Amino acid sequence: AICGHGCKYGECMGPNKCKCLPGFTGKTCNQDLNECGLKPRPCEHRCMNTHGSYKCYCLNGYMLMPDGTCASSRTCAMVNCQYGCEEVKGEVQCLCPSGGLQLGPNGRTCIDVDECSTGKAVCSYNRRCINTFGSYYCKCQLGYELKYVSGHYDCVDVNECVTNTHRCSLHAECLNTEGSFKCKCKQGYRGSGFDCA
User: Fold this and answer.
1) pLDDT by residue (tens digit) across 119-142?
2) CA angle 61, 65, 69 (to 5 degrees)
3) Mind listing the domains of the chain with CATH numbers?
4) 89 burial level (CB within 10 Å; 0-12, 13-18, 19+)
5) CB under 8 Å to 163, separation ≥6 — which residues?
């Protein structure tokens, strides 16, 4: 195949017959094809012809999608919320799945609310507050254990003297107290109860 005039942006397929590369036209493939003038138009909003190609642009408040269409940049998918969002009057607001979480400074991710330090948590007198991500729970105070007593769970005093979890001296007696214990040196011995001489 010989093309006397040559094929500038294409290849010679037969006697003086050029096959043009995409974006070019004409007998010798030397002319730029204006894709913006094609029907259907390749871009939804704005089209700019370039040498051998074209570029799509979107109007303000819209985002260019891979297929050349323009999608509102005010949709949940575009905002990239951590847990989801809602659209109210064209405005997009990210949401957090529980009251124990609040929107972070970036407006997209949720950060934990420490209910224990803010005083929002309600735990009974013999329980302490443990913060978790998005919530909290009430755990028995130290010296108490959770037991099923008369039809419900309750925090009951641990008798350290019976469970042998005290650190009293061998020469001291253990006295159980509510939530704790005391050590008292036996007769004839002196000291803190942890050390008796």
Assistant:
1) 888 888 888 899 998 889 898 988
2) 80
3) 34-112 (2.10.25), 159-196 (2.10.25.10)
4) exposed
5) none
Q: How many Å apart are CA 68 and CA 56, to the nearest integer? A: 6
Q: Is the pTM of this model over 0.85?
A: no
Write out the two tokens for 70: 């323009």
Measured in Å, how far apart are the chain's first and last C-alpha atoms? 114
- Phi, psi dihedral angles at 162 (to 5 degrees): -85, -40
> 3-class secondary structure for the chain?
CCCCCCCCCEEEEECCEEEECCCEECCCCCEECCHHHCCCCCCCCEEEEECCEEEEECCCCEEECCCCCEEECCCHHHHCCCCCEEEECCEEEECCCCCEEEECCCCCCEEECCHHHHCCCCCCCCEEEEEECEEEEEEECCCEEEEEECCEEEEEECCHHHHCCCCCCCCEEEEEECCEEEEEECCCCCECCCCEC
The pLDDT tens digits of the residues spanning 48-88 come to 888 888 888 888 777 787 777 887 766 776 678 888 888 77
b/e map 145-169, b = 16+ CB within 10 Å: eeeeeeeeebbebbebbeeeebebb
